[in-house]
Each structure stands twice: as structure tokens, then as C-alpha cells.
Amino acid sequence: MFISGFLVKPRSSQNGVSKTQSAGNQRHTSSLVGTSETTCATTYPKSFCEWLAGIIDGDGSMKVSKQGETSLEITMGLEDLPLLRYIQDMLGGSMKMRSGAKAYRYRLHNQLGMMKLIHCINGHIRDSARLLQLHRVCQVLDIPLILPITLDAQSNWFAGFFDADGTIGFAMKNRLPVRGSLMIRVTNKHLQDVESYKVVFGGNIHFSSSQNGYYQWSVQSRKDVLILLSYFQSSTFRSHKSRRFFLIEEYYSLYDLKAFHPESLNHKAWLAFLDKWKKLMI
Fold it and tell me: Counting C-beta atoms within 10 Å of the first and last residue's C-beta, which end of the chain has fewer, N or C?
């Protein structure tokens, strides 16, 4: 069947169909949409492909030039240069510091590299805007688009998307931590792009009207935070801010000892903890 210029192959997976938005009135040739069974062999581990798709969904973009050349760009802050270097080591490509911005831009644009990339992330991209970009690239490279697979608690996509759009923090008042304020958050402009976190890990989703509006998923109870910490211990995060996951258990331990009080015998340990925590600010 044809939908807005695309030839769509219905998905037969028992996990159901992930819906995508219309791509508008396209003048390009139609392209197939398939299931995970149509995936071509890739040289990259599945865990890396899932994680990379999360990074691209959050901080990347895929483009097709007027000349029909495809490319991938990922832009992240200076503190995440090691993360971008890791991607460059895996995929090839180039790196450049953005003039006037405290950020680096990674870029991949050779055709062979892009084809290997698409076979890697196809079926794992799910951000609304990024899925449309992927479809356009797939048209040029003559690769059937694979609809995003259903996520579960073993998927490394959550780690990649957190590395891009997540934060960990807690509130302080009068130099004391606010009870129950340790929070893990992920934000995005589109509701459907944070809903998977709530489905798999619980928590809540709130809408904020600031910055032209965005949705924020968060977990705040100790039980929910520790569930996500368990996921962290079985997945690979690579962002600068994700190192705070290693400090969560120490935070709870020192909080239970009330080490934040100046008169506490453990106050020096609390101050040392704060120093480590602040060094991981973004």
C-alpha cells in the first residue's frame, strides 16, 4: 500500500507495529518498509547499534544533500569528546570543533560507511524526526526501512538516548540535600519519544511550557532509581554525565548516615562526595 509517496510493507511481528508519521508529499522514488527479518548482516555488535541509535535519536541528524550524498552528524559538548572519539573509532568519519560553541561535531559522509551505519541502526531509530531522516537516507541508498523494534529492559537504546538527553541531579537547600530529590530525567520535544522509558522503567512524564515546550520523563523514588541503576550496571553508558550513576549508591549511603550535617562524623566524606559530584556537572 502507498502512504504519502512511500511503499509500505506491513509489519508481521507479534510485538506489534510502531507507528511513524507521514513523510509528506515526496517526489522521490518510493521505498520499502520492512521488519527486522530484512536486516542485512552488519560488522557491529547489536549492543553498539542499539546504543548508537539512541545517541542519534537524541543528538544526531541524517541528511541528504542536493547532490544525493548522505551523511550523519552528531554534535555534543566538549566534555563528551571521548564518546565521539569512540564512535569515530567504530565508524570512521571526521571530527571538528564548532566555532563559537563549546561543542564538537562528528561527521560521517562516505557512501560505504553510511551503508554500514544504516544496516547497523535500521530498526533501532525511533525518534519522530530521525525516523523520517532515516527513511530519506534509505531511499538514496536503496535499503528498505525497518520499523523500530519493541524495546525492553535489555535494550541499549535507553543508554544511548540518556547519554544524549538525560540528566541526574538532586536539589540542595541551605547547603543540605532535599529529601527524596535525587532524580534521573530524560527530556524530548515529543511525548512518544520518552514514553518508552515510562513503559519499561516506570516513573512519570510531565510537560513543561518553557523552551517552546518539552516532555520530561523522570524517576525520583529510591526504588525506581535503583531499578534504573540495575539497568545501568548491565548496559554501557559513555557520556560524561553518566558517571554520576557510579555515585548513586554512595549518595544514598551518606544520606542515610546524615553525613550532610556539619556535626556528623562522616561530614568529610559528604564533602568529598559533593566534590566528585560537581566535577561531573554539565
Answer: N
Domain harbouring 49, CATH code: 3.10.28.10
Residue whose entry in the numeric block shows the C-alpha cell 563559537: 100
24: CB partners within 8 A, 6+ apart = 4, 5
* Residues 110 and 161 placed together within one structural domain of the fold: no
Whole-model pTM? Answer: 0.84
Do 184 and 166 meet the contact criterion of CB atoms below 8 Å apart? yes
- 234 and 163 fall within a common domain: yes
CB neighbour class for 167 (10 Å; exposed up to 12, middle 13-18, buried from 19):
middle
**Are residues 179 and 142 part of one domain?**
no
Contact, 14 vs 120, CB < 8 A? no
Q: What is the pLDDT of residue 156?
A: 95
pLDDT of residue 63: 97
Q: Which amino acid appears at position 87 of this protein?
A: I
Query: CA-CA distance, 145 to 165, in Å (whole number)?
Result: 25
Residue 216 is predicted with a pLDDT of 96
Buried b (16+ CB within 10 A) or exposed e, 123-133: bbbbbbebbbb
